[in-house]
Known about the structure:
The complex is a heterotrimer of chains A (149), B (425) and C (472).
Chain A: H1 2-40, E1 46-49, E2 63-65, E3 70-73, E4 80-81, E5 92-97, E6 100-105, E7 112-114, E8 117-118, E9 124-125, E10 131-134, E11 137-142, H2 145-148
Parallel strand pairs in A: 3-4
Antiparallel strand pairs in A: 1-2, 1-11, 3-5, 5-6, 6-9, 7-8, 7-10, 10-11
Chain B: H1 9-27, H2 33-55, H3 63-81, H4 83-109, H5 119-134, E1 136-138, E2 141-147, E3 150-152, H6 154-172, H7 174-178, H8 190-208, H9 212-229, H10 233-253, H11 255-265, H12 276-287, H13 311-344, H14 348-372, H15 390-408, H16 414-423
Helix pairs in contact in B: 1-2, 1-3, 2-3, 2-4, 3-4, 3-13, 4-15, 5-6, 5-8, 6-8, 6-9, 6-14, 6-15, 8-9, 9-10, 9-14, 10-11, 12-13, 13-14, 14-15
Chain C: H1 2-38, H2 45-52, E1 53-54, E2 58-59, E3 65-72, E4 75-79, E5 93-94, E6 98-99, H3 101-105, H4 107-111, H5 117-120, H6 122-127, E7 131-132, E8 135-138, H7 142-152, E9 157-162, E10 169-175, H8 182-194, H9 203-206, H10 216-225, E11 232-235, E12 238-241, E13 244-247, E14 255-258, H11 259-265, H12 268-289, H13 314-322, H14 331-342, E15 346-348, E16 353-357, E17 363-366, E18 371-374, H15 378-394, E19 408-414, E20 427-434, E21 441-447, H16 454-470
Parallel strand pairs in C: 1-7, 2-8
Antiparallel strand pairs in C: 2-3, 3-4, 5-6, 8-16, 9-10, 9-21, 11-14, 12-13, 15-18, 16-17, 19-20, 20-21
Amino acid sequence: MFEIFSSLLKYIFISVIYLFIFAIIRMIYLDIYSMNARRSGQNLPYIKLINRRDSLEMKVEESYILDNNLTIGRAMGNRITIADPFLSGQHAVFDISDGSCSLKDLGSTNGTFVNGKKLENAPVVLNDGDRIRIGQLDFIYVAGLEVQK
Amino acid sequence: MRVLKYPRPVEMIVLVNAIGFGLLFFYKKPYDYFILIAGLSVILLVGFGYFAIRKAKLGDGYLFLISGMLSSIGIIMLYRLDRELGFKQIVWFGISIAAFFASYFLYRRYQVWERLTCYYPAISLFLFVATLLFGRSINGAKNWIFIGKFSIQPSECIKIIFVFFIAAFFNKYKEEFKELTALRFKKEDIKLYILMSGAYMHLGLMVIQKEWGTALLLFLVYFMLVYVLINNRLFMLINAGMASLGGIGGILFVSHIKVRVDTWLNPWKDIAGKGYQITQSLFAIGSGGFFGTGIGLGRPDFIPEVNTDFIFSAICEEMGIFGGVAIVLLYFILAYRGFKIALYTVENFTKTLALGLTLLFGFQTFIIVGGVIKLIPLTGITLPFISYGGSSLIVSFIALGILQAISAGPAAYVTRKEKLDGESK
Amino acid sequence: MENQNKRITHVMVLICFLFLCIVVYLTYFEVFVKDKILTSSYNRRQWEQEDTTLRGSILDRNGVVLAKSTMDENKQERIYPYGSLYSQVIGYNSKAYGKSLMELYYNNELLNIREYSSIFNFKEKLSGELKTGNNLYLTIDHKLQEKAEQLLRGKNGAVVAMRPKTGEILAMVSKPDFDPSSTKLAQNWEELIKSKDSPFLPRATQGLYVPGSTFKVLTAAAAVENGMEDRTFDDKGSITIDGKIFNNFNSHVYGNLDLKSALAVSSNVAFAQIGSELGEKVLKEIAVRVGMNREIPFDIPLNSSRFPYESMGKTDLAAVGMGQGKLLVTPLHMAMIASGIGNNGIIMKPYLVDRVVSSSDITQKSVKPDKFSQIMSPETAQKVKDMMQYVVETGTGKGAAIKGVKIAGKTGTAENELSSKQKNKEHAWFICFAPVDDPQVAVAVVLEYSGSTGGALAAPIARDLMRQVLGK
């Protein structure tokens, strides 16, 4: 009896090990892919998520590359769309000019916070390492290479 | 973002253990419920380690997974061979995981490692002398020290100390080494020779202990490190030449080595005597076919030293050539991750350390697997994570822990990452 | 640092390559190599097959069962109906002591072990049917084997009878022998192992003896080939070559001899002279031609006959010419040489197994006679044949004569390491074939350390054996 079990299960056993290998390779590949994507945009600044992704209910990326006139909010049509109920439809906008990046609140309900301070109407220039809070999300701002000096 | 469509590696490890231990449960009557507990403990240990690393973001996510899978396969195989050994290996596994995390934190906490350049060879010598004085011979090689009921193999530790030594030494004199474009046999080059003598001293210790496999391993690691760090052709030629001389001398004059080379070339001449080990290994590997005979259906008990050196043959017999290839792939991915960590490390000492540890894994695996399948002559070293042995398993996980620590450390943006890790707890 | 990183990738490629080698080698091994080695009898996994397979029988050419297995409740027993008669041909098959001779070398056929047998046996595994091995039909003629054993009883040595035209072995007896059944083997093992007589040595194939005068047939052939056919010799009873004295048997003086007579009386003086005249090159060459120093393929291990000379002085040449010196031959090889001379100078490959037949009577393998070596031209062979016939008609081989049959033979009384110190320790040899015009059988007989002469002791054994074959 055991003989038959083992003879049959051996195929499954081997398959599982190969599935494992496949899964690992796939994960590595995805990592490289997003790394490359980031590297091609390495000169560009980006924001990196601090919260633990599994503690969040909505879909959020680990990081978002920033561009000029990049809006962030809950509604479709934003450059960065996140289904966070604490985000307004159009919550804030990033602006890149003269080699610096600034963040402006677009009149959001719950506000936009940089380093703990709530943004008023005026845009705030972001520095490398600044903490941004939008809705439930905490981000850290990473400056692009040129800006970094 | 949950990717349910694709399998998560950690789930695969759970499955492998479930199938493996499930089969082992039915293997022998009377049914031993302890096997199920054993399987469960392996799953829990791997799970704990994995989630700890993931949640606390302790660096590379793959290293532990791969070694977890390797260890699981090893434990299943060892359990199948001998219940007691399997159980002991699970205990060693648990201790190793503790050692893994311990070395991770210790390495990161005490940033002194690159300054201990002179201490490393001293420790190696000390361990060597201790083995000489207190050691006992097993299988012709005097390299075990018994403390009460437990035996440890100091030569395993010397491997890691060796890598630390080269990394520290090179880091200390990196300016001088940078200027080296040609070997001038002048006073400036003395650092090179000190490095060389330090390295060869370690090799010599291994040779004296008749640990040919480890000596070969250390030389290969040393040689590759020299290639990467000091790209000086003449120096490399000198080293290659010395090694060749040593090798040829060994083959000609050391009967032990000559026997190994002879049985590698033609083990069929003396199947019952000198060629016994390797021929039994080949019989086993051949008996498995591509998918193996199935766990418990082969006769790996016919293989000598099956718990340590020839465990790979047993795996090939019962899990097939595909099983053996899968394991080689796993080691390769492990090495790949190690290389990647080395590539992305900026700081000199850590970079060399990561590279050296990766090379230890890579070459060690190649040497022993190559030996048991008769690709190269057989040497008596262990297969990392799979062979039975507390020393082997713990030291492998310590090396892995250090590698893990390096991976968690400075990539491109150092301080920010550490700040992140610290604050996200 | 960029350079360093580049070199790190080089090293990574190296490791990748090394691992690739492992994968490729494993695959290569699995596809090409493993089948050749898995069936080695040192692979104990094969023994598992044994318990689940009924071992095949071994039969003589007419179907007489010489070895068979019975299965009694999962316990197999190997039975040898004729006891020790075939112990030096078939060997034994014992769990405790292993296998020998044919039981060893034809193990895979007897157990029907083939590649992928696990696939073929799945059906039996499921239904629990017993697997059966294949049966071997030997070339041996049981009645002849019995006769040969009878003739050799009480002495140590070997008798080989074979068919010159095909190479079939009709009878092969080596003494001493032993009872190969498991019980008797267990009982007697210690004694057998320690015995000075080496009962486990199959003399016919593994025994190496000084050929003595039987070798002279080859010296004569070489003489014919090198223009010495019409030479005459003045045999004064002894001859001194390079300071060493070579005597005839009992220092007998034969006076004037031609080649034919010299062989008939087996004159050491004449042949020592011929040897020294022929020279190293010629003697070595014919030795190799007939198969000395060469591996001869056979169903069970056959020792190579030895011509172990690097350079030869005159005394070596003389000794070799007489068939003494360092020459060593196996009885089977001498039978082959006799066969070759009888078969127009062509030695056929010797073989024991005629065919392998499955339990359902399907022939798995059938052996065809094949040439081993052309040792001399048909003309030379004819001349040597004539001389050997003369030996039996008028010379030392009269003991082998059969009325109404033309027999060709040669006696030998070989000096060996014992005979130089004690009396009556020579090996007594006789080789022959008959009938001369159409040889049906070739025989070689050697009686170890028996003293006396080949003509007196060995020739009559050969005669009685040939009588049975030829039906006279």
